[in-house]
Amino acid sequence: MGVLTAAQSVAALVVAARLARGRNRPPPLTGGSGDGAAEPISVVIPARDEEGRIGPCLAPLLADPAVREVVVVDDRSRDGTARLAARSGATVVTGTEAPPGWVGKQWALRQGVAAAAGPVVVLLDADTRPKAGLCTVLAELLDAWDLVSAGPRFATGGGVEQALHASLLTTLVYRFGPIGPAATSPGRLLVNGQCMAFRKAAIVEADAFGRVRRHLTDDVALGRLLARDGWKVAFVDAGALLEVDMHTSAADVWCQWGRSIALRDVSTPGRLAGDLAVVWLTAALPVLRLTAGRPKPLDLVLLGQRLLLTAALRGSYREPGLGLLLSPLLDPVAAMRLTLSALRPGRTWRGRAYGRAAAGLAGRRDRRAPPARSAGR
């Protein structure tokens, strides 16, 4: 057995073990108990130049009786984001310029959470499309968890965009497993910053946003930091209650999602190298060999596994189509984008540029972190 074949065999076993965790996956969220939220809920939305997208996010939240307030942090927008939010009925917080050493979104989130009046806070991005019951069920989950993150259903604009998006999504599943089952360790935990819920008092006491202030991959950094502190962190499937329209084209998927898909600033060099190897050996290599007309038996097994995952991903898209079906053909492209993200991570976002420290490798624990504790009530 050659070295490459042996390495591919090991990688295939790793991916199979991760996918097998999906057997313990809890069912997707479908709504709350119907009794309404037991505690007041504040929704906080950081927004920078979101005039064209924030309206469909605000409307259902402002009509939800479980939501006591919607706080929009206008992160120094250059368009009419603040005016639109105010006209819609949201409370608008005029964000200040981030202090040195802060990435803009974390600074906006800290300001928004500080302004929130409710004991329960739900964070949403402006491009999300929440449905009735989302905030209630997230608040109910806080009886068992300290931080809850929700995975959405994706809206994609065309076949190529959907194919590339699904292929990049597959790299996350191959590296970390499916949504739902608990992570094997804090260092393998994923959360989705587009939708998170927690209790305000606990997040403020932990100085959570201050401790991840330099991270561009702020959501994963936050979840892993709090898990190391002893918080119970859940990542749930909320596709029936939450949709997100993240991108405008396949090129936008490549540039925007691709800039951070490697999670370089929250991954150690060893784990990052291992993740790259797993994706190249189990996703990209079988397609390349099939295209060349020289697939090996293990390649065919891996291609079959990939097709099964493609079928499982149908529920992750609002309108699954031909793009999803053909997404395995773009796995070598996704592996290349993952590699570029690891080697040359993006350091710009929404017109702001950040230094190397914001995109640096993991391993520098914040010295101000408190000792391990439970965020329990």
SSE blueprint:
Layout lengths: L2 H18 L20 E7 L7 H8 L4 E8 L6 H8 L2 E4 L9 H12 L4 E5 L3 E3 L3 H8 L5 E5 L1 E2 L4 H18 L18 E5 H6 L2 H4 L6 H11 L4 E5 L4 E3 L5 H8 L11 H23 L5 H16 L9 H5 L4 H13 L4 E2 L2 E2 L24
Parallel strand pairs: 1-2, 1-4, 2-3, 6-9, 7-10
Antiparallel strand pairs: 4-8, 5-10, 6-8, 11-12
Description of the structure:
This protein has helices at residues 3-20, 55-62, 81-88, 104-115, 134-141, 159-176, 200-205, 208-211, 218-228, 250-257, 269-291, 297-312, 322-326, 331-343, and strands at residues 41-47, 67-74, 91-94, 120-124, 128-130, 147-151, 153-154, 195-199, 233-237, 242-244, 348-349, 352-353. The chain is of the alpha/beta class. Helix 6 (159-176) crosses helix 14 (331-343), helix 11 packs across helix 12 (297-312) and helix 11 (269-291) packs antiparallel against helix 14 (331-343). The chain has two domains: 3-23 and 258-348, no CATH class; 24-155 and 177-246, Spore Coat Polysaccharide Biosynthesis Protein SpsA, Chain A (Alpha-Beta Complex). It starts with a helix and ends in a 24-residue tail after the last strand. 42% of the residues lie in helices and 14% in strands. It is globular and about 65 Å long. The chain has a seven-stranded mixed beta sheet, sandwiched between helices. Helix 3 (81-88) links the parallel strand 2 and strand 3. Residues 359-377 have low confidence and may be disordered.
How widely separated are the two ends? 55 Å
SSE topology string: HEHEHEHEEHEEHEHHHEEHHHHHEE
Main sheet specs: 7 strands, mixed
The proportion of strand residues reads 5-15%
Strand order of the largest sheet: 3-2-1-4-8-6-9
Q: Work out the oligomeric state of the chains in this entry.
A: single chain
